[in-house]
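Here we describe the complex-level prediction in full. Unlike the single-chain runs in Section 2.1, the two entities below were treated as one system.
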Amino acid sequence: MSDPTQTLSALGLGHIVAEKGFKREGQGAFADPAGNRIAFASPQTLRSFRLVLDGERPGLWRTLQKAAGHACGGKIARDLDARLAAEQQPALASLPLEACLGFLEHHFSSHGWGLLSVDLTHAAEHGLVVARLSYSCFAEADPEGSDFADPLVAGMLQGFFEHISGQSLGCEEIACVRRGSAQCEFVITAPERLATVMPYLGREPAVKVITRLCV
Amino acid sequence: MTPWKSHHYARAEEFVRLVASALAQSGGSSTPFAPPPPSASVPPFPVPAPVAAPAKPVTAAAMFKSIPWKK
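The structure predicted for the assembly as a whole is:
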């Protein structure tokens, strides 16, 4: 896919992604360009939360992260819609596909979550969207743990794509830097289809899981 | 006729005379070339194919709604 900034600039939307990053809001607060307050968490804090929650109940950290990400992904899309509406621009879903995905990729990189790319190779025939995240901040901040590091990202992608498609979707991480992969990989499709590959996650390489979903 | 025009026509007549002379020397005809009558079946110039309008970009909604999620 082409550079999202160029795509958005060609549509007259470049100024939205050209805005500066986080800024001091006074009173000891930071905010993003949309005005949302930003709080920074050290890797140690993230790891501590995970250890405490998983100590309370195994798997609780993942469940909470996924739910938080889902809410966050929907909010990212709604915030972008509001921003576009304020400028009398079409809503996110009514933009050309590349522009819509460009906003998502830019949002990830501008928040320091990593470099996201969305792969639609299997979408038309197999109903499967693949997303890849390089330099995941979550895998880097918390490299220990036996499971995948990015349930928050999986939830965000689910929430974002549900908003755009108007469908109930699921998203699962199928490969993670924490487990030795070159990049983190996610699949987005109908929840019932994802359920069929759950037993293989973490046991089979990403390419094999994708093949299972494309059969 | 102004001096400029008379000079122009004199040069044009000289040019025609020189070309006719050169044609006669090379074995060609010095009579003016008569184009064949236009044919009804063959157009005089190739007709360019109609230019297709640029394809409208696919919107995100159209793309994601067309995906067979449940397959």
